[in-house]
Amino acid sequence: MTAPIRAPEPSDSDILEFWEGFKKKGDERAREGLILHYSPLVKFVAGRVGVGLPRSVEQSDLISYGMFGLIDAIDKFELEREIKFETYAVNRIRGAILDELRALDWVPRSVRARAREIQRSLGELEHKLKRSATEDELAEHMDIPIATLQDQLGEVAGLGFVALDELLDPGERAGTTIGDLLSDARIGAPGESFEKQETRYFLTEAISRLPERERLVVTLYYYEGLTLAEIGTVLGVTESRICQIHTKSVMSLRNRMIEPGHL
């Protein structure tokens, strides 16, 4: 049995022709070519967003939501702006997925309330200790067994507010960046560069103060691009345990970043 013949991948010049054909001539076939070419971005983003979500949330549904974000990104992208389309599209895709998840409200109120309680308790404890708290210390502060705390961290792991990249999003609408709000991408907003550098500095400092294992999980996930399952293999623990560590780490970082003076 012969293998099916795959169509060759479009070259950079082909993609540029697609863009020009769609943006300048309104060619729908060129638009379809762009959607097809960039569709792997949707699967990638859906996979990242889907980590930690309940099993009831189907990956295919996330991909469907993300496709609307991709199409919206293609329709609104401006060729004259000196930014990569992939960078622009990833934010739009992720925003479309999160918007739909929020609209569906798949998280029970009890889980949201539990997440707020953990966040509040963690903030109180770390303010008192003047450092990152361990899970044992947090469990003692909340007067619950460590196993119960870890189960609760696993339950709230899928909540949108514990995504590190969402924490750094300055826009009110998910997926909106400062660049989206500029009339000309070649002209930076006053202080924008300084603000980004300052945020990066404070975030780096906050990460450096995390316990060693939490710092390693954050580094491998956000900087090295490993999945939670891959990190679990590296550290010799289960994916669910890494999910718990990740959730607690980002809650701690969130508290540090919103405190006056950050640190």
Overview of this protein structure:
The N terminus is likely disordered. This protein has twelve helices and no strands. It has two domains: 97 residues, Rna Polymerase Sigma Factor, Chain: A (Orthogonal Bundle); 123 residues, Orthogonal Bundle (Arc Repressor Mutant, subunit A). The N and C termini lie far apart (64 Å). It is elongated. The protein is mainly α and 263 residues long. 67% of the residues lie in helices and 0% in strands.
Fraction in helix: 55-70%
Order of helices and strands: HHHHHHHHHHHH
Q: Spans of 5+ residues with little confidence (pLDDT < 50)?
A: 1-5, 161-186
- Using only C-alpha atoms, the radius of gyration works out to 21 Å
The number of helices is: 12
Count the domains: 2
- Please count the beta strands (DSSP E, at least 2 residues each): 0
Quickly give the structural class: mainly alpha
Measure the end-to-end span. 64 Å
Top-tier CATH class of the largest domain: Mainly Alpha
Strand fraction:
under 5%
* CATH topology-level name of the largest domain: Arc Repressor Mutant, subunit A
Let me know the largest β-sheet.
none
Quaternary structure type: single chain
The CATH homologous superfamily of the largest domain is called Winged helix-like DNA-binding domain superfamily/Winged helix DNA-binding domain
CATH architecture of the largest domain: Orthogonal Bundle
Average pLDDT metric: 77
The rough form would be described as: elongated
